[in-house]
Structure formats: structure tokens, C-alpha cells
Amino acid sequence: MKIPSLLLSSLLLAIVPASAAPSPTYALSGIVQGVPASNPPSHPKLVPLADAVAATRLLYTTDTPNLRATLKARNDAGLKSPPVIVYMGGFTTNNDDVPTLERNHRTGIAMTPVARLTTDLDANATEFVVSDLLGDELAIKASTANISDAKDSGKFCFWLRLDDELLQVTKVDAESRRIRVERGFAGTRPATHRSGSAVLTPVYLGNRKQLDHARHTNSWPGGPDYLRYAVDPRQPAAATFKAALVIRMMEAGYDGAWFDTFQPRPYNLCDALGRPVAYFWDFKEGRIYTIDTYLDAIKDYVRNIRRIVLAKMGRQPVLYANSASASYRLGVKSLFNSATQSDLLDGYCFEDSYLRVVATRAKGKGIASRAGFTPITGERWVTNLTNHADAANSGLSGICMAGPAGYLAAFLNSTLPDYDQLLRFSYGSYLLTVTSARTTSFGLPLLETDGRAIAWPSMLFAPLGDPMQSNSIGALKVQGSPCYSREFEHGLVIVNPSDAEARSVPIPVGFVDATTRKQVTSITLRSADAAILMRAKR
Question: Global pTM?
């Protein structure tokens, strides 16, 4: 028996009575976005924003009118939850905070070695020659301003670090590699430095080989986008800088922060020429970070942020982070708060859990006006679900985001011709991993418009009850089939995560089509699709 997509959608709608409880059967978290002007859903079902908010465990995005409206709706309704938190760079500056970082927290900026001194340098010298470490291009630039302009990458301050001294660069001869500097910069004392000393320069965001990447910002001095720095999680100045941003948001009424690209493997970082930087300099160890030392630094960073915020606000911030999908087994799991740990992150997001962006239409510098999605299948699907199941079994607050966790999520809506299938596949996959403790949550965009919201998909309210089988993904595979199935107290979930053609799956006795109430003995699922059936009433 093959159930068409349209019938499956109506089946799921029929599951939810008009008096359904406002909470989904399994927890839901959302990224708050406006309805995309370039492709708004046609004839959407709109509900009071407070109703959509009440159905969630956590809501976040940048500090936009959409998020402010969401916070107001929660507060006006007298709701104590969900937490509403603000998206910001985890190890990076955002938009207008570059001058603050340079003036007050410059030692918190991440640094990377790009050259070495060719001779000893005394405390009075203002010119010297360096040897390049990374090829023919010298990644050192002369300052064009004393304080960088966050909105103009052509107006920047550039400095070097030699041991504990900072030196502002005023002139560069790239051919001879002769550098002229101002000593005693940023309050540091001029000192002597030995030949061969590492010449360190700031770390920025970007990759000059991927200028058209919609999810990258290319922000080095003179680069195509506004200037952005990476910060060093080991440095107290970095935690002080980031804590001040969290405090500002909490003073505005928010509950905390969402740290983006927060993982023990740095993402999209570069030197002053846009060349990729993997790991930068660890001043504690006197060498480049390793994944282990960087993970230790992240823990110090989060704990210091919490300590500073608590001292100022008298309460702990709610802290979540993004980018668990590729780094869960690399150490991200140890950054979750749990039953035995409460001083790190309250939760983590598994971005692109079931869908990935496959096409975007650019509008301006790397900003997309439209996006498409395709299901994640095969071994990557198995790996993702295995991690989600492990997080659920460990009692961790992991958000299993259907697709992206940034602004592109807004395009995952009913304007997509395959939206129903994408949603079924994502939610069905998530259900294979949950436990009765419900510590993990399913992530979707909450689309806000004029104080209302597009209603959450009805399938999230299907009264499945608790799972009746473990969430060991391998054990859920249907014998002789590419499909996976899992029984719940009141229903059955079947998912086909393969690229194979549609397959017929036998259904145990006692499950019915919720629309016709007729018993279903088999179901045919095409690639990257799912179905939810209900138990027959006895």
C-alpha cells in the first residue's frame, strides 16, 4: 500500500483534534525568522505569536525585530519559558563591536604566526626584516587607521605581537619584507626579542577561495566584507569581551546567548590575506593549539563568561551553542551541562541534522534571497542519528535542527515543492532517536509576521506517546529493507533514509490509517521519506 504525500499530510492533520494541547509530543526549539519576502508561504495558517512560543523549549536568533516581538509576546502572555536568547559569534566579533574589542580587550584577539624575525630586535628599533613562513605572500599590512572601522574593511588597525609586546605596523615593504612599527603600542612595554621569534598577527574570518559561499563572511583587512576578528578562548580579555555582550542582551530582557560555530575545530578563520587558519597560537603552551588544548580553552572561556555574567546580573545566563554535528565525537559532548556538570553549556545544536542546503540565490555579499534543501541519506544519516541518540541517552539538551541553524533556515517553509516530504523525513528521523526523558528537541524555523506566527506543523502534535523500543539505530533497521522503523505507545514511525527506489515495508498488526481507520498491512516509502501511523483503538 503506497500512501501519497498529500494523503500523508492529511493523515497527520487528522491526528490532531481541535482541542490539542499547545505542547508538541516531543520537545521543539526554534530559530525565529521573518517570513522571507522573496518567497512567502501562500495561505499560511497564522496563530497568535504567544501560542507558537508556548509550544517551544528554546527560541533564538540575532537581536532583530522578529526576536524582540517574540520576547514581548512571551512576556505579555505571562510565560516564564521558553528562554529567548540572542545569536552571536562564539569566538568572533559580530558587527559593531570591533572598536570596543580593540580599545578595551585587544589581548583577547586570536593571533597566528605568519613570519619570524631575521635578527635580534632591541627595545628601541622601529624597523626590522621578517622571513615569511607561508610562501611568497607576506600576511602583514600597514595600518590605515588607529582604530578599525567595523563597517569598512579598508580602514583597519594592524599590529604584530612579539612575545608579550604589541607593535602597530605603520609601513610594509612586501618585496624586502621590511616592517616599520610603532613601539609601546596598546600600553605594552618595548622589549628585546630574539632572532627567530614568531611574528604573530590577528586572526580574522573568511577564506579567499570561497568568496561566494553564502554561509561564510570574508572579513580580513581590505577583504570583501566588513572586518571581523576571532578571539582566543584562553585569554581572560576574550571572556570579558564576550560576557559584556551577553550582559547587554540580558539587560535588554533576553535570557542569554547562542554561540555560533562553537566547536573544538575552528571554522572559517583566516590571516590578513584570507588564507585559511586551522588552529592559532596558544600563549599558555607557547605553540599552536591542538584539538585537546583548544577544547580545554573553550571550557575556561565558558566558565569565565558565566562567572562574569553572574557577578553582574545575579543570575546565570542561558548558554547554547551551534555546530555539534561535525564535532560531537571530537569533544563537544563534554561541553554539555548534564546531571554531573552545570558550569558549561546548557545545550548544543546539531545543525543540518537531516537536510542540507544545496542551492542558494545570492543577494549582495554572500546573502541568499532563496535556498533549496536536500535530504541527508546513507552513512551520514546513520552517523547523525547515532549522535542524536547518544545525546538523548546521556540526558543532554541537544537540538536536532532539521536544516541550517542560521538565517537560511527561514527558507525551509511550505513554498518548497517538496516541503511536506522534507518535513516528514526530518521529523521521522528525529523520532527514531528520542527517549521518554525528552531531553533533546526538534529544531525548525519559527516564522513571525506582524505579531503572529505561521502555525507549527500538525505532525509535531501526533500523540505517539513514549517509545517502546530502544534508540539503537542499527537495531531499528527493517530486515531486508533500507527502511528503519520504531514503535511507540500509540504509533509507529517508518523512515527510508536510502537513495534506493521505493520499497514496501510490512506493518505489524494493529496499526491503522488515521484518516480511513482501516488497518495498514504494508506501506511503500520512496527515498528520503517517512510515515507516521497510529495504533488502532481497542
Answer: 0.91
